[in-house]
Amino acid sequence: MPDMSEAELHDAIVIGAGFAGLVAARDLIEAGHKVLVLEARDRAGGRTYTSTFPGTDVVIDLGAEWFDPQRHHFMAAEVNRYGGRFVEADKDGANRWYLDGRHGEGEEPDSLVDMAELETVLDQLKADVAPVVFAKGFDQVNTAELDIPFSEYLDKIGAPPAIADLLRAQSYTLTGALPEEFSALVYLREIAGFDNDPAYSFFASLARVDIGSGGLAQRVADEISDHIRLGEPVTAVTDSGDRVDVVTAAGQTYSARRVVLAAPLNTLGDITFTPAVPAPLARLVRQGHTGRCIKVWSKLAGLEYVFAMGWPGIVECTVIGEVSERNGKRSIMASFGLAPDLAVDRVDLVQAGLDRLELGATVEEVYGHDWIGDPFSKGTWLALRPGQAPDLAAVESNWGAIYLAGADFAGVWSGWVDGAIQSGRETAAAVDAALTATQA
């Protein structure tokens, strides 16, 4: 570990070792700059976190997991660089659906919804998505009427009950939030990212990384490990004009010419900034976003399905592996939902949710990470509340010597790891240009 004493002046300090911070630091180091990464947790990876299910060798992601290799090009580049590979979701098996209080099976929920009615609703979504320019992030025009609670949007389009439940469930998979709390614009903008095709966004062929998203982040971290300090929560950032001083919870002060702020939006209120952050960002920090997905892994006996979706309760569950035990096969499944229906340490809640879906499986063990209670995330991925989009669009990429990065502030695939990586790389390029200009 090189000397990183308080008296040392770095070219850049990166706050946060999630994907955005890691790739920003790596790119700056490769450009020849002196870089220090301060990470609050005892591990790198941020809201990605790879482990194995206890007692097995099944690789699981406790955080971000799924990607679209055809669209997430920044993620694909990192997977290729570090020797990983995408593994598509296993669709070889039975699917289960629970909509409007009824159960059904099949690759699509055609036993529960009138597919002609669904097509009509999807056409309405397409029409509403039309003004949205995905590449412009949340800097949109002619979309104010879409910036309403998704629950109100459902009432507005008059979707039949089963289709409304399907939309509640599917929008949850893209927002991780309650329909009453997130803006319909967030969901519709996601559809715009999938070629303005609501049907594709419903049934997209997503993939996961064989070594896990957190495993990939760790490979980036391993490459620059001498520059990373773990267990260093930042409490204050002071931009004095000629330098930025960063104070940690341990009372240490580190200084740099530039700072990359790559911590989650919902945690920025725990840092004192001098001068204060710009007003649009300050409002977002004060309000916080509403992404609060709960993801619980479980080991199941007697499961015959590979996928299920429903509303309410457990919204989605997917099998990603099997293990053989002395008394038979066990399935390893991820279940997704919201409090109070799920908790990462409650076998009974997972069992009740699977019973509601009528999966006929017995939950033997559960495992997960509490991202909402985690003080260094305070939520999951970005899900804007109604009225927050204009402020996010107005947030500056940098003010003074402080540069903003992260999935929460990504201009394109916001909330996705791909967005975090793009944000980190673009921020690194901007910081490199600024440092090079001052040294010329």
Task: Write a structural description.
By secondary structure, the protein is of the alpha/beta class. Among the domains are: 9-46 and 211-278 and 396-438, FAD/NAD(P)-binding domain (3-Layer(bba) Sandwich), CATH 3.50.50; 119-202, Polyamine Oxidase, Chain A, domain 2, CATH 3.90.660.10. Helices cover 30% and strands 24% of the residues. The protein contains twelve helices and 20 strands. A hairpin with a 4-residue loop joins strand 11 and strand 12 (253-261). The protein is globular, with a radius of gyration of 22 Å. The two termini are 30 Å apart. Mean pLDDT is 95; it is low at 1-6.
Short description:
Among the domains are: 9-46 and 211-278 and 396-438, FAD/NAD(P)-binding domain (3-Layer(bba) Sandwich); 119-202, Polyamine Oxidase, Chain A, domain 2 (Alpha-Beta Complex), CATH 3.90.660.10. Helices cover 30% and strands 24% of the residues. The chain contains twelve helices and 20 strands.
